[in-house]
Fold:
Amino acid sequence: MPIYEYVCSDCGLKFELLRPLSQANQGASCPRCHNSAERILSTFASFSKSDSGLTTPIAGTASSCGSCSATSCGSCSL
Ligand SMILES: [Zn+2]
Structure:
């Protein structure tokens, strides 16, 4: 499945979701505040895989968490 990037319209958190194409245009809910998030269209496949298999953050992502995938980790919490 392709990975899509979303940005929360409320708190501004950016996150990625693995979804089937059929759901790509559906809204997603923010993992931090659970409000609606909108898909970011222009950054498909801009992520990269590190040697360890972890996805690396997208450069320039306006997230408070700069060292992980910005979905959930100890340094991402509010
Ligand atoms: Zn949010």
